[in-house]
Design a protein that fits this description.
Blueprint lengths: L5 H4 L3 H12 L9 H7 L5 H12 L4 H15 L6 E7 L8 E2 H11 L3 E5 L6 H4 L1 H9 L4 E6 L11 H16 L7 E4 L18 E4 L3 E5 L5 H6 L2 E7 L1 H16 L4 E2 L4
Parallel strand pairs: 1-2, 3-4, 4-5
Antiparallel strand pairs: 1-8, 3-6, 5-9, 6-7, 7-8
């Protein structure tokens, strides 16, 4: 799910051009270290210098690296084709917005390679996830990642393993409608037993195929999808979708979100 060379892509166009120039003029050899890259182009970040040095060590020629950097600059020059659409639940006061449940069913039904679902409370999931579960059967290669808030209820003194086991049982037996199960991740801070405040995985977003993102207030419940007053934005933008995926991947890699086996 991670976009390639993210640190190089994050550089300014001026820095990318300086870096391409250093490669073209042979100021950077094929065996250049990150230190040599930073010396040749002082404006480059340490992470980007490491990325370029890694590419060169892996066998990418300076000429091909120059072409790669020019391609990144050219990609930015493309016209912005991203769109943003208002999505609502509940009463439609102006008659010009589309319903949250309809939008999510459409997104799930058209997913091709991967789906990321973040932070939703789940209730009546068999109805909410029906289109996604069907699509997972149709496309064996479709990977679904579910990051949810598994919280300790007030007064619950159960150990963490017990709470997680009950959640998994409920999800598999009562909420998930298909034979293929998603990858499941949770924030263990929501299960803390101390008297202090607990954290909550409260972000609510869906990313489809790294191209389209839905971000809003609605949970994955029948009430939130159809009856509650909820507002969300459907953003057709690979840049926004990739940024959400990178953020969640970073939380997983750094251990803030933990994998929970369902089977």
């Amino acid at each position: 799910m991670t976009e390639p060379v993210p640190s190089l892509r994050a550089l300014s166009e001026r820095t990318l051009a300086d870096l391409a120039g250093a490669l073209k003029s042979c100021r950077l050899p094929s065996s250049a270290s990150a230190y040599q890259v930073r010396h040749a182009v002082p404006a480059i970040t340490e992470a980007a210098a490491e990325e370029l040095a890694d590419l060169l060590r892996a066998g990418l020629s300076p000429q091909h690296a120059e072409t790669l950097l020019e391609a990144v600059v050219a990609e930015r020059a493309k016209p912005d084709t991203s769109t943003v659409e208002l999505v609502t639940s509940g009463p439609d006061a102006v008659g010009s917005t589309r319903d949250t449940g309809v939008i999510l069913r459409e997104l799930f039904a058209r997913a091709e390679s991967r789906v990321l679902i973040v932070g939703f409370a789940i209730h009546q999931g068999r109805q909410v996830f029906a289109a996604l579960a069907k699509r997972m059967i149709e496309r064996e290669e479709l990977a679904v990642r579910l990051c949810v808030d598994i919280a300790r209820r007030p007064g619950d003194t159960s150990n963490e393993d017990g709470i997680l086991a009950r959640f998994c049982t409920r999800l598999v037996q009562h909420e998930w409608p298909g034979p293929r199960l998603p990858e499941l991740f949770y924030d263990s801070r929501a299960l803390a037993t101390s008297d202090g405040p607990r954290a909550s995985l409260h972000a609510k977003s869906v990313v489809i195929d790294g191209r389209t993102a839905f971000v809003g207030s609605a949970n994955l419940t029948e009430a939130a999808q159809a009856r509650n007053i909820e507002i969300g934005l459907l953003v057709r933008s690979p840049e926004v979708a990739a940024a959400i995926e990178r953020h969640m991947e970073g939380l997983i890699e750094r251990g803030f979100l933990r994998r929970l086996a369902l089977a």
